[in-house]
Amino acid sequence: MSCPGKRERILTTHHIDRNTSVLPPASYTLTLDVDRKSDNAGFEGLARGRGENALIVAQEKKPLRFLETDHSHDSLSVSDSLTHRLSLPWFLKDISGLHYDRKNRRLYVLSHESALVLVSDPEGGWWVMPLRRGHSGLERDIPQAEGIASDGRNSLWIVSEPDRFYRFSRTTTS
């Protein structure tokens, strides 16, 4: 899944494998024609949702919100009810990245302007992971965090500009 241009609000699906060297034509395209008059209403985060064909799309700001899409062979649904269910905290300034961990049922919301990651828990609460020096083992602030993902080994990955990757791992205490 790629987002060729957040201003155009077009999501495309491409089938790739280990032999892919050039991005093939899209096998599926979805245009979300929402709030086109806003000066910064582009989509900034994209994550797989709970269902097999579900996507969560984050609108960066003005307003901050989530759109859930679900498509099957014969239907497509788009809803912003997730925004209301999650009740984003007042201090969140923007959304710059998004990741849904299906195994742990947690939604990770990245904000570079607020310099934090919001993590939802299955009961509907939030906990905050600051991206500032002195927190989570950071020796300096993470500048302009723009992407977030997790892997199968309980590591959280954050990419920031310019060309920096950060890996956070859970540590066990005895």
Automatic annotation (TrEMBL):
Entry-linked Pfam families: SdiA-regulated (PF06977)
Main subcellular localisation: membrane
Membrane topology, record value: Single-pass membrane protein
SUPFAM superfamilies from the UniProt entry: Thermostable phytase (3-phytase)
One GO cellular component term: plasma membrane
Protein's cellular compartments: Cell membrane
Keywords noted in UniProt: Cell membrane, Membrane, Plasmid
Protein name: Phytase-like domain-containing protein
Gene source species: Salmonella dublin
